């Protein structure tokens, strides 16, 4: 929009200078200075518009970078949630295996205690018979 206003303003100045020159209200020597002033104004407007375009492009590029980074952050959050879930699952499995192992150890210990009590209550002759049954008659 500003480019259009600048262009229309310059065209208006050119028309006014042309008309004043045709009506012989301007001296002949001032016409080149006015033309140079108009050209300078046009150059300044052109370079300002180019600079504005570059800034707009840079802003758009930065916005795209921000969108990409936000998407990457969301992906990382999802991966983190998945990893936390997997970690909880693995931790639960380890807890279950540990509990199973401890349960089996306690059962074996209880069976050994019962067996010890039973063997302590046997007489020497009964112990000898148990040993022969367990290891066979050849070993004695």
Short description:
The mean pLDDT is 80. With 140 residues, the chain is mostly helical.
Low-confidence segments, given as residue ranges, are none
**Coarse morphology:** rod-shaped
Kindly state the mean pLDDT as a whole number? 80
> What order do the helices and strands follow?
HHH
Q: Helix/strand/pairing class, anyone? A: mainly alpha
- End-to-end Cα distance, whole Å, is 113 Å
Could you state the oligomeric state of the chains shown?
single chain
Number of helices: 3
Rounded Rg: 49 Å
DSSP helix fraction: over 70%
Q: Which range does the strand content fall in?
A: under 5%
For the report, how would you describe the main beta sheet? Answer: none
Count of the separate structural domains? 1
Work out the number of β strands. Answer: 0
List the helices and strands and how they pair.
Blueprint: H1 2-22, H2 31-121, H3 124-135
Helix pairs in contact: 1-2
Tell me what the structure shows.
This protein is an all-alpha fold and 140 residues long. The protein has one domain (2-139). 89% of the residues lie in helices and 0% in strands. The protein contains 3 helices and no strands. It has helices at residues 2-22, 31-121, 124-135. α1 packs antiparallel against α2 (31-121). 0% of the residues are buried.
